[in-house]
Amino acid sequence: MAFLDIKDVHRQFGNQKAVDGVTIFVERGEFISLLGPSGSGKTTLLRIIAGFEYPDSGSIVVDGEDLTRTPPQRRNMGMVFQSYALFPNMTAADNVAFGLRTRHVPSAQIVPRVAELLTLVGLSEKTGRYPHQLSGGEQQRVALARALAPNPRVLLLDEPLSALDAKIRVTLRAEIRRIQRTLGITTLYVTHDQEEALAMSDRVVVFNQGRAVQIGHPEDIYDRPANAFVSSFVGSTNRLHVQVIDAASGTCAIAGQTLHVDELPAGVAEGTLVDLWLRPERIHVVDPDAPAGSNRLQGIVEDTMFLGASSGVRLSIGDQSVMVDVPRDSNRPTPVIGGAISIDFSSAVTATMGDPL
Amino acid sequence: MKGSRVWSPIVGVVAFLYFVVPLVATAEFSVQEGPSHPFWAAYSSILSSPQFWSSLRLSLFMAVSAVVIGLVIIVPATYWAFLRAPRLQTWVEFISIMPFVVPPIVLVLGLVHLYGNGFGPLSSRPIMLMAAYGVISMPYLFRSVNNGLRSMDVRSLTEAALSLGSSWPRVLFQVVFPNLRTALLGGTFLVFALIMGEYAMSSMLGLNTFGVYMLLTGETRAHAAAALALISLALVWFLVGVMQAVNRGNVTIGGAR
Ligand SMILES: Nc1ncnc2c1ncn2[C@@H]1O[C@H](COP(=O)(O)OP(=O)(O)O)[C@@H](O)[C@H]1O
Ligand SMILES: [Mg+2]
């Protein structure tokens, strides 16, 4: 049994299955992201953990204590909202003190605790400000301090950075992670931003249509996506439609060229259509005369794009398009639109059952 | 663009005349009771009349009671409906405008018919009037409270407070009410204005409220009626001033804490 057990949780609105049988075991001190597109049930699950919503079935257990039907007031969980939800009638310090006052902490202890937390989030100078006198990023820092003040057992954040500028988002997410590590607090972080989830988390739970479709370390999610949804949602990816020629040896064909796949989906036979998922940065443009690596395909350059550190090249293989990242290197000729191009990639590639074209 | 620059002063002047001329005329009329009277005669006769003061007291008391009833019943009910039954919202709105649809006469007759006898203190006429005022003030309070709730993201605030361990009364008194203050003051002001001028219900119940006093004065003493109209206008301005002072005052109290 882990520290926070989310066991087979179901929640339905009308006939919309918002959360459809989710099980996650969260270790003490772990930072877990719930990643998924809008409407995939992340918020609903978080609200069930916080107690604002009750599950139709399943349970929420924290440290051996079943909280499934406990009202939110008695769960001792800290919550941070996308809209900050600071009390507009209270100063930053009073906002942070709120959760201590509700627990009847003596005033003599409240003052230093509030100061400690506002210092932790870098706002020791602005304790007397009202929310409307603070920037969005500062408001969210206050909200974080407020959630942490009563020493919650679990910290829940629902897209806390979505309303902020890109720059502030990046600095604040590093800071949230630093604070989380300092305090060692068990944290669930909801986001639809895959970069955020991969950058911050110990583990990522990928959501789709109310289900947790993959749970794993960021590297696993990125390198070994469990299915087509994960690989297209996390990171950018190419989908290559290929036909199996020999299932035993993993030989497949695309536009008259052959390639090898280490691991084909179970039960494929000759002639089956399979999807290969290739990250642009895992594909290398090579000299046509160079010795072949694992897989070598020939194509025609359709378009090139300047991306800063690298160039993006779109090439066609038969009637399919592939995006490749080419590092900018003055020693190598830039691909020319309409010219021939050769690419190399590993046979350790994710393959899933393909939809018919 | 050009057109509006030409027209706006004209519109301003017309509006000014439209609002100010009647006031000036009323004021002029109120000081012309006749050659044998000093110009303040109408005012002094009203301000020295015991009926004026007793009707004013009664109406103020009624207005305060209606607001208290509203705060105790309507505000929590609106909040609850907003939070827990968003799907009932249309029904709540429908019920809240019922007092506009039901004529006051019908409302009072219904009250008298139902509660007129045998309900102990509930059957007393002032209590019945108080209840009727509570009902007719409902749309005004509901509207302003509902708008206030809408503008403050009350669901997230409530959930934030609950997850911080707050009890429901604490949520209401420390989070919801303070942030509804401006909306509540607006609604309260409308209720005051409504009840200070209300005539039909109080006269049906035979109670001499301010509205009844104004009407009787108007029927018998023309100059005094004009003076009374200006006095009641001054009263309204005074109330607006007090409410704004209270509103500002609370902000600074919040700041000092
Ligand atoms: N209170 C509710 N009533 C009806 N449907 C809801 C409610 N809350 C969420 N849903 C539905 O449940 C699904 C999941 O929503 P949500 O958990 O908010 O997704 P996410 O946070 O991943 O965007 C959505 O289709 C949404 O419309
Ligand atoms: Mg959401």
Entry keywords:
heterodimer; A: 357 residues; alpha+beta; 6-stranded mixed sheet; 5-stranded antiparallel sheet; 8 helices; 20 strands; B: 257 residues; mainly alpha; MetI-like fold; 13 helices; disordered C terminus; binds adenosine-5'-diphosphate; binds magnesium ion
Tell me what the structure shows.
- The complex is a heterodimer of chains A (357) and B (257).
- Chain A is α+β, with helices and mostly antiparallel strands.
- Chain A has eight helices and 20 strands.
- Chain A has helices at residues 42-50, 92-101, 107-120, 136-148, 166-183, 194-200, 218-223, 228-233; strands at 4-13, 16-26, 31-35, 57-62, 65-66, 77-80, 154-158, 186-191, 203-208, 211-216, 238-246, 251-254, 257-260, 273-278, 284-286, 295-306, 310-317, 320-327, 340-345, 350-353.
- In chain A, strands 6-7-8-3-9-10 form a six-stranded mixed β-sheet, sandwiched between helices.
- The longest helix of chain A has 18 residues, at 166-183.
- Chain A is elongated, with a radius of gyration of 25 Å.
- The two termini of chain A are 45 Å apart.
- Chain B is mainly alpha-helical.
- Chain B folds into two domains: 1-30, no CATH class; 43-246, Orthogonal Bundle (MetI-like fold), CATH 1.10.3720.10.
- Chain B is built from 13 helices and no strands.
- Chain B has helices at residues 2-30, 41-47, 50-84, 89-101, 104-115, 125-136, 138-151, 154-163, 168-179, 181-196, 200-204, 210-220, 222-256.
- In chain B, helix 2 (41-47) packs across helix 13 and helix 8 (154-163) packs antiparallel against helix 9.
- The longest helix of chain B has 35 residues, at 50-84.
- The radius of gyration of chain B is 22 Å and the shape is globular.
- In chain B, 30% of the residues are buried.
- The chains are: A alpha+beta (357), B mainly alpha (257).
- Adenosine-5'-diphosphate binds at residues 13, 16, 18, 36, 38-44 of chain A.
